[in-house]
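Reminder to self: tokens first, then the designed residues, so the page reads top to bottom the way the pipeline ran.
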């Protein structure tokens, strides 16, 4: 008797207003742009055309991910499925460079330094002070989170450290118990962290992984959640173009 499949559909949110302005966003709760909403609809079409039908979904506390999920589920006629929402799936916190234009920041600090802040495994930007409007302690949606867990800045290593408990205790058990398709709508770095964990990538490999907005990335999993197949739901040519655009955001 064949083992029922388990597939994880990873989806970075559609273009946000700050993506459009090429600014470091992190935990700032900015909305989708008009283009981002269109991207979310196209993502749903790609999921449907691939014959996928999520039985449950997970997302972050940030409206750009939540709205992308809402649009996708409406397009798929799946707004009734259960949805888990956790701050642990939030984007990496960009500390004191939050809100800055990426290209202008590269002009100021150099492309290599900005690449480390954006993509390196264990290098975090300078932190924001606790009274900064960009510190999550100033946002009521995190009032229930213990203060020591709220970041003033994060590296990818830090992001993985705070998202793994949610994966291990909430997401993974549900996926193991009930085969099927599961949709995760989150952010460039939280998804990079999850991919690194699931595929066992080293630090150098994840440094060069640039996740475009709203392109479904499908991981087929065994019963013990080992990845046996992975694929983006667009052509290789389009994927390479979009990944290059993400990589170029912080160039002078």
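Designed residues (252 positions):
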């Amino acid at each position: 008797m064949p083992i029922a499949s388990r597939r994880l559909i990873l989806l970075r949110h559609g273009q946000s207003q700050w993506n459009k302005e090429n600014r470091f966003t992190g935990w700032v709760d900015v909305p989708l742009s008009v283009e981002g909403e269109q991207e979310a609809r196209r993502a749903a079409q790609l999921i449907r055309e691939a014959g996928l039908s999520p039985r449950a979904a997970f997302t972050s506390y940030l409206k750009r991910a939540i709205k992308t999920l809402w649009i996708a589920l409406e397009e798929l006629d799946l707004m009734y499925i259960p949805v888990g929402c956790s701050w642990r799936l939030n984007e990496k916190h960009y500390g004191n460079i939050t809100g800055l234009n990426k290209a202008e920041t590269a002009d100021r600090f150099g492309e290599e330094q900005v690449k480390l802040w954006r993509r390196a495994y264990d290098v975090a930007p300078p932190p924001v002070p606790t009274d900064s409007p960009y510190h999550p302690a100033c946002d009521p949606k995190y009032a229930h989170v213990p203060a020591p867990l709220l970041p003033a800045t994060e590296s990818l290593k830090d992001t993985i450290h705070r998202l793994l408990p949610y994966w291990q205790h909430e997401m993974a058990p549900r996926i193991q118990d009930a085969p099927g398709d599961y949709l995760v709508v989150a952010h460039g770095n939280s998804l990079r962290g999850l991919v690194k964990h699931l595929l066992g990538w080293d630090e150098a490999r994840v440094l060069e992984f640039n996740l475009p907005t709203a392109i479904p990335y499908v991981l087929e999993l065994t019963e013990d959640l080992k990845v046996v197949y992975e694929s983006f739901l667009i052509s290789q040519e389009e994927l390479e173009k979009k990944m290059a655009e993400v990589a170029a955001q912080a160039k002078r």
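The chain has a mean pLDDT of 94.
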